[in-house]
Amino acid sequence: MTTLVLEPWRDFYVMIGTASGALIGASFIVVTLSANLRDRAIGIRGFISPTAGHLGTVLIGSAILAIPDISGLAVAILLGLGGLAGTIYCCLVSRRIWAMKLLPEDRFWYALMPLAAYVIMLAAAVMIVLKIDSPLYVLAASLILMLITGMRNAWDMASFMILRPTDPPQ
Predict the structure, then answer these.
(1) CB 162: neighbour CB atoms within 10 A?
(2) Rounded mean pLDDT of 71-84?
(3) Are 142 and 164 in contact (CB under 8 A)?
(4) pTM for the whole structure
(5) List of long-range contacts for 43-49, beta carbons under 8 Å, 24+ apart
């Protein structure tokens, strides 16, 4: 197994890891905003938790790639397991999302885009093992896609929570 040259990527991973951490914090604020809403559990299970999980994947993936002298095999194993677990999780979440009466663009962003990002992450891990050129670019595409999806979905959830009328106190 050849060693991955990660040093030129360090600033990239620090930047997207920091951005994802900030968005995770913003997701906690969205949960707080939803405190007065009825049927919160559906929103949290279907939208907020998966989005925070996807952003957490970007953060953890960035942290893994910032480990000094990590081997290519270790990166492939860790990110391969993350990609596989994320793919399975996205299939479960997508089933719930598809059962809801959502706009097509919401199904696209909440179900299909995260699934694509995890499949791409899994492909990057396979590329590392098979010594196929440019796995770090493929991995970067996966993490950027997850970050963009997380940003869009965090904004969508926040705007929904803010614009939705609160339930009257009981």
Answers:
(1) 10
(2) 96
(3) no
(4) 0.86
(5) 43/157, 43/161, 45/96, 46/93, 46/96, 46/97, 46/100, 46/110, 47/110, 47/153, 47/157, 48/157
